[in-house]
Design goal:
The complex is a heterodimer of chains A (261) and B (179).
Chain A: H1 14-22, H2 28-39, H3 42-60, H4 70-77, H5 86-102, H6 104-118, E1 147-155, E2 159-168, E3 171-180, E4 184-190, E5 196-202, E6 208-213, E7 216-221, E8 225-233, E9 241-248, E10 251-259
Chain B: H1 3-14, H2 18-40, H3 43-59, H4 70-89, H5 97-100, H6 106-109, H7 114-123, H8 128-139, H9 144-151, H10 155-175
Helix pairs in contact in B: 1-2, 2-3, 2-4, 2-8, 3-4, 4-9, 8-10, 9-10
Classes of the chains: A alpha+beta (261), B mainly alpha (179).
């Protein structure tokens, strides 16, 4: 309540005064008004008692201890330097494109096969199959039923699509499927003590560059439509998290944490 | 958690000192986690939000203005992250998420006071903007000014929103026979 402001009786909201009283925000004048009102009004006394009990109850609510490994997990997921601006990131992507050229023969074969096979694909599927050859550098996985674990979808002016996280035994797959306007940069971070990068698999022929370091993968997608898988290995098979960030024009447009089971 | 120390830790972090940022993580992970939990009523979500909050804070440290409290800045990120997560899960607004997700509250599991559990449940029946003022005022002991900065609303609105939120809580808890 505004201290010192004259209050005309008909406009006084006494319950609001009781709320302000809890916060120690009553002026002397308001205090006097409230006290007078309470003396002559048992209902108001009851409300005030309830407000006081509520305030005491709220103050008794105990803090919850965060998981013991949260701090370590946060630090493990951080990029090497703060303010991972586009300027800082771009040289890594340039290096990434070069590194991918080293695997040019695989990549080119994948693109050619992808272009041929793409004609036969009429519908995108979220069924994970690492055995097709759309620019694949992923290990061959035979049989098994992939278990969906987590996912995210996003719709914005610049980016629309989804990421699905699935797992089979110790293999974990992140399936990216999205359309974008302009270049998209993606960052995937995970606990390197639990997860190792195993390969990627392009479902559509697109200009995708990839670089990785311990616990971190960075991708740059220069085509409007992308559908690819990142394949990771989690030998200990214990639940873990993947921090996925999408950047357009150097700015984060979506960031989520996906979790295995 | 001293404002000047926090500003120094941010400056050190920007110079590449990861230990400085780790100090900030150690100091603020608990309040951020608790804020997210009270807003979302889910430990896993609170963990995800906390992780994303510090990741975003780290990435945008240059955007931190030392004339404000680091806690206020990070609380604002936490609030936005909580809203984003809540929206992405598409749980209908105003629904008690204990009922919505069919799981018991962690408070129940931890055998905390019944009143705490009832309060958390009643909190989940409120709109998130009202929930936020209660959480900031009562669980984080923020001043009206701090709450105004975090929520980007005038202090007068903080006051009236607190009144509306408390009144709602009071009515819900009275109906449930708690008060």
């Amino acid at each position: 309540m505004s201290k010192g402001r004259p209050l005309s009786m008909p406009n006084v909201n006494y319950e609001e005064l009781m709320s302000a009283e809890i916060d120690g925000e009553l002026s002397e004048e308001e205090r006097t008004l409230l006290d007078k009102h309470l003396i002559s009004n048992p209902d108001a006394q009851s409300v005030r008692t309830q407000m006081t009990k509520l305030s005491e109850g709220l103050d008794q609510v105990k803090e919850i201890e965060p998981p013991a490994d949260l701090g370590r997990s946060i630090m493990a997921a951080l990029p090497p330097v703060p303010q991972a601006s586009a300027i800082a990131v771009r040289p890594r992507f340039r290096a990434a494109r070069l590194s991918i050229l080293k695997y040019g023969y695989v990549f080119a074969a994948g693109i050619i096969l992808g272009l041929i096979l793409h004609q036969a694909v009429t519908k995108r599927t979220t069924t994970v199959d690492l055995n097709d050859l759309y620019g694949s550098m992923a290990p061959r996985v035979v049989g098994g039923a992939w278990q969906p674990a987590d996912g995210m979808s996003f719709t914005s002016d610049s980016l629309t699509g989804s990421v699905q996280l699935a797992q089979l035994g110790s293999t974990v797959v992140l399936e990216f499927d999205f359309d974008s306007i302009g270049t998209v940069e993606i960052s995937v971070r995970y606990d390197p003590q639990l997860v190792q990068f195993a390969g990627y698999n392009q479902r559509t022929a697109g200009n995708l560059s990839l670089t990785g370091r311990n616990g971190s993968l960075s991708l740059r997608c220069e085509d409007n439509q992308q559908h690819f898988l990142l394949v990771l290995s989690s030998p200990q098979k214990i639940p873990t998290t993947f921090n996925v960030e999408f950047l357009v024009g150097g700015k984060i447009v979506d960031a989520r944490t996906l979790r295995t089971r | 958690m001293n404002d000047r120390e926090d500003a120094a830790l941010v400056a050190e972090s920007l110079r590449g000192n990861r230990e400085a940022f780790e100090s900030l993580v150690n100091d603020y992970q608990k309040p951020v986690y608790n804020m997210a939990y009270r807003l979302l009523n889910n430990c896993e979500d609170a963990r995800d939000v906390t992780q994303n909050v510090f990741l975003k804070a780290f990435r945008n440290l240059e955007g931190f203005d030392p004339k404000y409290k680091f806690f206020s800045w990070i609380c604002r990120i936490a609030l936005n992250e909580s809203i984003n997560l809540r929206n992405s899960r598409r749980v209908p607004r105003g629904v008690d998420e204990r009922v919505a997700d069919g799981r018991p509250l962690p408070d129940d599991l931890l055998c905390c006071a019944e009143l705490s559990s009832e309060i958390q449940s009643a909190l989940m029946s409120m709109e998130l903007d009202q929930r936020a003022v209660i959480v900031l005022r009562h669980f984080h002991h923020c001043s009206y000014q701090d709450i105004g900065q975090i929520l980007d609303i005038p202090e007068k609105t903080v006051k009236s929103r607190l009144f509306t939120a408390r009144n709602h809580l009071r009515e819900v808890l009275c109906l449930r026979g708690v008060l």
